[in-house]
Design goal:
This protein is α+β, with helices and mostly antiparallel strands. It has 14 helices and 15 strands. A hairpin with a 3-residue loop joins β13 and β14 (315-320). This is Winged helix DNA-binding domain-containing protein.
Length: 352
């Protein structure tokens, strides 16, 4: 069966809770999304606000303080928020990726450092306490004074499953990044049985139908074709003839369902979930939204990217890619109220 771009777009919006704001709880929504991109502190709050009815800052902050949701490096070795009971099985799947990336990045500046010894020493330092990255770095540098101290800290983070404890991850809070052992903060050990099939199932439930390259782009894992093709999945093709996979009982959205305006934050899950992003935006817009390692906040109109936006000290700035409907301004006003800038100005730049 061939699926149109619009059907793929609306199905993704439906599974991402973007066709209408959901009444599910924040923890249920985070589980639904598998993990919420957290490169920027405020982005997960804005992403959940776009998806949930009546969402407030404390709804997520309370989950972080309570340990039901944790913040740490996960998919693509970047910062994510995820349910603690998902972290314990997703993080081990990522370890090989973490190890390869750290070897490539830090091999020269940590020459002579035994990785097993470093991991064991970092674990001893972190057992029973929380340290900031500079504190952990300095303790490790006592053992390897000739190595690059900054690299030692990053290397430890890649070798050990650590999470960042509150107030890190709380709306509007920056500062030093604290580390603690994930298993101690969560209160249970990480799982030892690796199941990429489980991750593929969760991905498809939240983002499908999708191709193998899409799953790999989202997760940061490679060589998943054999895994995906060995699973009992439904197969479709898109308008370009690419094979897409989905869960056998997953429903497709009606492409005629109206898609409301949504303002998605930087690095939003939906924008980063696909190798082929034409189901969300035109290629010329992708080149403006995805610049190097940065993914800008986007405006969705009828399900597709129609511009970018940024919160500033004075309000909200909009960069349209074409004519925008009035609902964009209304949604921008609601976002400013959520951000605590109810009376702030909205600036519209010339069309890009």
């Amino acid at each position: 069966m061939k699926l149109t771009r619009r059907t793929l777009n609306h199905t993704a919006l439906h599974r991402q809770l973007l066709l209408r704001r959901s009444t599910m709880s924040p923890i249920e929504a985070i589980r639904r999304l598998v993990a919420v991109q957290g490169q920027e502190i405020n982005a997960p709050y804005l992403g959940l606000w776009s998806r949930l009815s009546g969402f407030a800052h404390d709804d997520l902050s309370d989950l972080l303080y309570g340990g039901q949701v944790v913040r740490g490096s996960l998919l693509r070795a970047t910062q994510h928020l995820t349910a603690a009971d998902d972290y314990v099985w997703v993080r081990p799947l990522m370890q090989a990726r973490f190890s390869r990336a750290s070897q490539s990045a830090f091999a020269k500046v940590t020459e002579g450092v035994d990785r097993d010894e470093l991991a064991a020493l970092a674990r001893r330092h972190l057992t029973g306490r929380t340290l900031t990255r500079p504190q952990l770095r300095d303790l490790l540098a006592e053992r390897w004074p000739e190595a690059d101290a900054l690299a030692l800290g990053w290397l430890a983070q890649s070798l050990l499953a650590v999470v960042h404890t509150p107030p890190n991850g709380i709306w509007g809070r920056g500062g030093a990044t604290p580390f603690t052992l994930a298993e101690e903060w969560i209160g249970r050990p990480l799982e030892t049985t690796l199941s990429p099939e489980r991750l593929v199932e969760r991905y498809l439930a939240a983002f499908g139908p999708a191709g193998v390259k899409d799953v790999q782009m989202w997760s940061g894992l490679s060589r998943l074709r054999e895994v995906v093709e060995g699973m009992p999945l439904r197969r479709y093709t898109d308008e370009e003839g690419r094979v897409l996979y989905d869960l056998p009982d997953a429903e497709l959205a009606d492409e005629d369902t109206p898609a409301p305006v949504r303002l998605l934050p930087s690095f939003d899950n939906l924008v980063l979930a696909y190798d082929d992003r034409t189901r969300l935006m035109a290629d010329e817009h992708r080149r403006q939204v995805c610049v190097g390692s940065v993914t800008h906040p986007v405006i969705l109109v009828d399900g597709f990217v129609a511009g970018m936006w940024w919160l500033t000290r004075t309000g909200l700035r909009i960069q349209p890619f074409g004519a925008l409907p009035d609902e964009v301004m209304a949604e921008a006003r609601r976002l400013l109220e959520f951000a605590g800038q109810k009376e702030a100005a909205i600036e519209i730049a010339p069309q890009g």
